[in-house]
Amino acid sequence: MKRLVLMLIMSLGSLNIWATPVDINSANAEAIAAALNGIGLKKAQAIVAEREKNGAFKSAEDLDRVKGIGAKTIQKNKTDILIGGGVGTPAPASVPAQALPTAAQPTPAAPVAAPAPAAIKPAK
């Protein structure tokens, strides 16, 4: 039983659960290193250098252009890699939540006219 729990903990430890997706076409090296599992600052700097030298990445698989990054690293980070249009162009997923209409954000109701006052009857 202990072995099973230990294996489960070790397998979850390799996942980057708290990672924030990163646009590899606009992020700096520090942001890339913080967001991607198995990518340290040196490899992140190499990603930025490759992007500046040869242009924007068109897919996550294009990261294999960077020495030291292979298919396994790309696969384990696939959900955290965003592909924006290029340097300075944010990925579509980076649009602030306030700008997106959602069911959770109520829409203002149209003003309702007050009912007309009832006629006042004289007292007897």
Main β-sheet, in a few words? 2 strands, parallel
**Which structural class should the secondary elements be placed in?**
mainly alpha
Write the CATH homologous superfamily of the domain at 18-87.
AF1531-like domain
> Given this structure, which CATH class of the domain at 18-87 is correct?
Mainly Alpha
Rg over CA atoms, rounded to whole Å, is 26 Å
How much of the polypeptide forms β-strand, as a percent range?
under 5%
Going by CATH, the architecture of the domain at 18-87 would be Orthogonal Bundle
Task: Catalogue the unreliable spans.
Answer: 12-16, 87-101
How far is it from the N-terminal to the C-terminal residue, by CA?
A: 90 Å
Kindly summarize this structure in a few lines.
By secondary structure, the protein is mostly helical.
Can you tag this structure with a few keywords?
single chain; about 120 residues; mainly alpha; DNA polymerase, domain 1; two-stranded parallel sheet; 4 helices; about 30% helix; about 5% strand
Structure characterization notes:
The chain is mainly alpha-helical and 124 residues long. The protein has a domain at 18-87: Orthogonal Bundle (DNA polymerase, domain 1). Helices cover 32% and strands 3% of the residues. It has helices spanning 2-13, 29-35, 41-54, 71-77, and strands at 22-23, 81-82. Helix 2 (29-35) crosses helix 3 (41-54).
List the helices and strands and how they pair.
Elements (H helix, E strand, L loop, with lengths): L1 H12 L8 E2 L5 H7 L5 H14 L16 H7 L3 E2 L42
Parallel strand pairs: 1-2
Helix pairs in contact: 2-3
